[in-house]
Amino acid sequence: MERFKWVPALLVMILVLSGCNGFTTGGSGAEEVEAENGKVTLDFWTFWGSEIRRPIIEQIIEDFNNSQDEIEVKHTFVPWGDIWTKELAAIAAGDPPDVVINDINATALRGKNQQAENLSKYLEEDDISGDFYEELWNATLYEGDSYGIPFNTDTRVLFYNKDAFEEAGLDPEQPPETWEELWEYAEKLDVKNGDKYDRLGFYPMFGVQTDVWMMNADQVNFVDENSEVKINTPAKLETLEWLNKWHEKYGADNINSWQAQMESQQANPFFSGDLAMLVQQPTFYTQIRDYAPDLNFGVALLPEKEPGNGHTSWGGGFVAEIPAGAKNPDASWEFIKYLTGKEAQEYWAVKNFDNVANIEAAESAASSDEFNDNGKMVYELAVEAMPLTMLTPTSLAAPDYMTLVNSEFDNVYLGKKTPEQALEDAQAAVEKLIEKNGN
Amino acid sequence: MAGKRRFNYKTREGLQGYLFILPWIIGFIVFTAGPLLFSFAASFTNYNVTSQMDFIGLSNYERLFSGDQLFWTSLYNTLYYVLFSVPLTTIGAIFLSALLNRDIPGMRLFRTIYYLPAVLSGVGVYLLWMQLLEPGTGMVNTVLAWFGIQGPNWLFDPEWTKPALIFMKLWSVGGGMLLYLASMQGISKSLYEAAEIDGANAWQQFTRITIPMITPVIFFDIVTSLIGGFQIFQEAYVMSNGEGGPVNSMLFYNLYMWQKAFEAFDMGYAMAMSWILFVIVFALTIVNLKLAPKWVHYEGGGK
């Protein structure tokens, strides 16, 4: 017996470790950098470590450092999967970075939780709110105060294969305008081969999900700013029925095997002409440029539900913000202003082929000489789509409600629930979550 | 002189022992017991890391049990996973080590090959498996098709996502295999020789000698893989993009806890969840410890 007395004790230790494993967050990473020659040194965290993005953000930082002699910014790359949990731990430890790039949709939630500094006192002196797309700016507000300045953004547009259009007897200069046309065109573009397809016309849930089409239909988020749940609405029901029709048309087997191909970049069936139309971010153009340079394609706004309903699209993006408790907020603000100013934004837009939040920068990037004709075509359309693009700001009353909603949509496509039943259940589940959260 | 008399030999040895494990004890108190107690206290608050920590009594626990369907979903998913993965990996590892416990040429090579998956781990492996399990062109379904079997839509079909993860887990039984193999090699040859003389066949030798002799390792393996099974997180996080997969079929307990902690910033709630998991795992381990004397055989009777 004596020999094994330690066994229970050891097990308790293991249990202890298992119990709190979910909270292991990395250490703060940010090192205090001693200021040289009286300069203020800022630690700037981004998740842009790729071969393409890193040199661009570092060039912007260098330009800023050279533009004045009071602030020196140092870039810290933190991987996507870690950056915000690390930042949260650093804030809690009282040693946060000075500027961080964060998700635009949860900016208000971070403001509410006081994870980020309130920028109103800077904006009172220096109102830059008008420089950005309104939808983006509004997403940064909590009770009227801004907690982050929009940096980059995106939207969703329709890419289509002009050669396939011509083959199917469609006018390559007339992309589909409405959901009805989308369906008709897809029927014409489909090339069936037994149960399988040699060419797929269009499937609305490659590239985007159910929620984007629902927003396209009624321009209302699932939970609105007053914490009212707007899931079970007539327009959303029609959308779900319409999407389910597509799902039944092609069948789960075809959809799953095509979906898997979409995920491997180079083998995307759109590049080989096997998929005629696809909803994607404008940056998808860079993949076409790199992997399928000869593809004859066009771009269009997202089709609208009915004529006059609006070509509403969906996007996200990132803000530059000052974590709560940062040591030199004034200097951080100066840097953020530079980062979101026209010059840096235009450089980012052109070099990355990315949508930026600064309107003036976005518009002048669209006519940049660095883009070729196709690049210009896509970028111009992206800029045109921006004012029609909605965000999905995190609901303060129920930040994580999408887990409840997505599974109900899955149930419809799996044939386990009718669209009516699914929306009713999703509506009830989210209402209950909000009620339980005590808001 | 007085110092020598103050401690007898036994006490002195004990104190020396504590001295040696002091770094570990300090580490435990500071980095484990501290956060543990903190999380217990904070589970009764609306803690969100940065701005609030008000005492709200049992409200987190009440919300969990009375109004959170995803809590039950995640608990069900986790129990399902544990219930199948623990016995299957244990049996798999014993079976494999029995096969690899033979004296044939080239055995070292086989052992290395079967152990390799246990060395590989992390996100790379999960991404690899996502390709292997891809329904149309993935290797797994391609091989099944050779035998005329139409493979399932593994990670897309909610009925098959958890079996897919268990299947993936079985691929890396090499870690457990190593323990069993070491234990099997320690079994005295004379036992088998005696059995052979008495006319026992291979199966009888396996069930009457090998299995009883390795029960301490089986016990250890079951306890640790049970705890590990309840902690499943990474697989689901990577393979479902942190969302929980179709119809939340991969929303495991720790994944849901992570969502509550770092997406909803409802840290108090997440801490309450972690304590419920703690109690469940603790209870199961107690049961295991109580049952152990009935089937675990320690050589030399040193129980």
From TrEMBL, chain A:
GO terms for biological process: transmembrane transport. Pfam families: SBP_bac_1. Keywords: Signal, Transport. It comes from the Bacteria. The keyword Transport applies. Belongs to the bacterial solute-binding protein 1 family. This is ABC transporter substrate-binding protein. The lineage of its organism: Bacteria, Bacillati, Bacillota, Bacilli, Bacillales.
TrEMBL record, chain B:
It comes from the Bacteria. GO terms for biological process: transmembrane transport. InterPro entries: ABC_transporter_permease, MetI-like, MetI-like_sf. It holds the Pfam family BPD_transp_1. It is a multi-pass membrane protein. GO terms for cellular component: plasma membrane. Belongs to the binding-protein-dependent transport system permease family. This is Spermidine/putrescine ABC transporter permease. It comes from Bhargavaea cecembensis.
